[in-house]
Structure formats: C-alpha cells, structure tokens
Design goal:
single chain; alpha/beta; seven-stranded parallel sheet; five-stranded parallel sheet; 13% strand; globular; binds (2R)-2,3-dihydroxypropanoic acid
Length: 323
C-alpha cells in the first residue's frame, strides 16, 4: 500500500522530519521559506495531509481551493486561530493541533517575561553590553519586587495553571483569575487561587497581569484602552498568548502615559512586525514568539502531529482533533 502524501509548510526539528520520512511520502521545506497562498493551494490539491504551523494563514481563501485532495490539516502548534475552522469544516477537513506538550515551556517563558519586566533585566543587560555600567550603588536600576505580589490571570487553561504553579510555589504570589470555564475546584484549591467574575476585576487588583486566553474573534482587542486604564499604575502586563488580544496602539499609549509600569511581550499584532515605539521603550521586554521554543518541546510538538496523522490514516480518531 502506498504511503500517504504529506506536505509540511516549514522546517521542523530533524528528528521529526526523519520520522515523517519513515512513515509518509513527505514533502519537507528545507529552505524554511513561508508558503504563499498558491503553494498552500497546491499542497491541499496534491497531498492527503497538509501540515501548516501557527504563522501560516490557512484562511477561507486558502481553503476555498478547487480540487481539494487533502483530508486532514495537522497543524504544528496549540493555537488554531490561524485556521478558518468553519471553512475547514465545510470542506470536510479534519483539523488537529498539538496541546499539552508545550504547556511547561510556555509557562516558563511567561514567567521569564514577568521577571524580566519587573527586575529590568533586558534594560540591565543592554546597559552592561553598551559598557554603560559604572558599578554597584544603592539606587541603581531599582525594579519591582515579585515575591508576594498578586498575579492576575486572564484565562485559566493549561498554560495559565502552569504559570500559576510557578508563581505560587516559587514566588509566593497570590493568584487571582477569570475564566468563563474555570478549572476544577481541586486545581483552584491547590493554588489557593481566587476566581474573579470579570476581566475588569482582575485588572483592577493585580500587580502583574498575564494573558492566557486563545486568539480569535472573541478575544480580539480584549485588552483595550478602557481596560488598560483600570490597571494599577505600577502594574505590568505579560502576553504570551496571541498579539491581537491586546490593542497594541492602546498599549503603546498606556506605556507612554505611564498608565502601567511595563509590558513583557512574546506575541504581537501583525507579527513579525514590531512597532518602532515598542522597540524604543526600556520598560518593555520583547521576545520573538519563543513560548514553546525549547528543542525538547518543538520535537514533542512535531511528534504529536505525527501521532495525529498516523491515527487518522489508520482510521482512528486523532487524539487532538479540533474539527
Ligand atoms: C502555539 O503553539 O500556538 C504557539 O503560539 C507557538 O508554539
């Protein structure tokens, strides 16, 4: 029996590419060049499975392709706001993602952003590298203490819980959260976390706010100028979720006006573009969407796609089916 034809949109870790070559008739992307719309059309016309990742816009235009051959989109990444799920459903496509395996690393990264913004770590590093440091002194580069402060989580899914675990057990932080689908009582109790009714309630009370909601229409510009105005002037905002959860212009204005103390960002509106104003601000820590970027996790993410494809082609239900 011939192997299923699989087309992968970007370069994947070599262990995963090797496994794909064993199992499938796979077309890899050795140059790692992003695919154009017409290349994605060709992939959907020629492969049994198309494997995009979170930076590929698999929108209605892409999915309206004539002569669709593919039956499954095995996406590499947990977020699926880059895929038009309604369009996929209407074309009879199965869609899978890669949850769980990136939870710890993404929470580590969110905590890194929190610590770096609070303790001015990016600024301090630039200071040393620029040979501006003149020595220790009592008032030099004083930041904000983290231990014992209140962490407000917007969304309390897997990554938020892992972040709360680190913050509560490692830094003695008080955890407050809001989520329309709150976690089970035992999870809340183990973190001594306190639920709040609304996003506004969390913003008013937290010293650090970390966003952990999915991207997409429902959360577009959830953090807008009105909500930013509710935050404490000394508070910090951390975003490791999706860029457009924050109205980026409103965030820039809040930072310029000193309405909040700083921000740690791993994701942006219109990635990979980052506004000049953010680049010039010392109280902002900027990462290039690194949440899941450890070697171990990126391999596990790829293997999870492989597992989903294998199940699908064996006629079983893929473990991570979204549609
Ligand atoms: C995801 O998986 O959705 C992240 O944004 C990248 O790992």
């Amino acid at each position: 029996m011939s192997k299923p034809r699989v087309i992968v949109s970007r370069k994947w870790p070599e262990e995963v590419e090797g496994r794909m070559q064993e199992l499938f008739d796979v077309q890899l992307n050795e140059t790692d060049t992003p695919m154009t719309v017409s290349q994605m059309h060709e992939a959907l016309q020629n492969a049994d499975a198309f494997c995009p990742t979170v930076s590929d816009q698999v929108n209605a235009e892409v999915l309206s392709v004539d002569n669709l051959k593919a039956r499954i989109i095995g996406s590499y990444g947990v977020g699926f706001n880059h895929i038009d799920l309604d369009a996929a459903r209407s074309r009879g496509l199965v869609v899978t993602n890669t949850p769980e395996v990136l939870t710890d690393c993404t929470a580590d990264l969110a905590m890194t952003l929190l610590l770096m913004t609070a303790r001015r770590a990016g600024e301090g590093e630039r200071h040393v590298r620029n040979r501006e440091w003149t020595g220790w002194r009592p008032t030099h580069m004083m930041g904000t203490k983290v231990t014992g402060k209140t962490l407000g989580l917007i969304g309390m899914g897997r990554i938020a819980r892992a972040m709360a675990h680190r913050a509560f057990h490692g830094f003695g932080m008080r955890i407050i959260f809001t989520d329309p689908y709150p976690p089970p009582d035992e999870v809340v109790d183990s973190l001594q976390a306190e639920a709040r009714e609304t996003v506004e309630d969390v913003l008013r009370e937290a010293d650090f706010v970390s966003l952990h909601c999915p991207g997409g229409k429902e959360t577009y510009h959830l953090i807008n100028s009105d909500r930013l105005a509710l935050m404490k002037p000394g508070a910090f905002l951390v975003n490791s979720a999706r860029g457009d959860v924050i109205d980026q212009s409103a965030l820039i204005a809040a930072l310029e006006q000193g309405a909040i103390a700083g921000a740690g960002l791993d994701v942006y509106e219109g990635e990979p573009a980052v506004p000049e104003k953010l680049l010039s601000m010392n109280n902002v820590v900027l990462f290039p969407h690194l949440g899941s970027a450890s070697r171990e996790t990126r391999v596990e993410m790829g293997m999870r796609v492989v597992e989903n494809l294998q199940a699908f082609f064996n006629g079983e239900a893929p473990r991570d089916r979204v549609v």
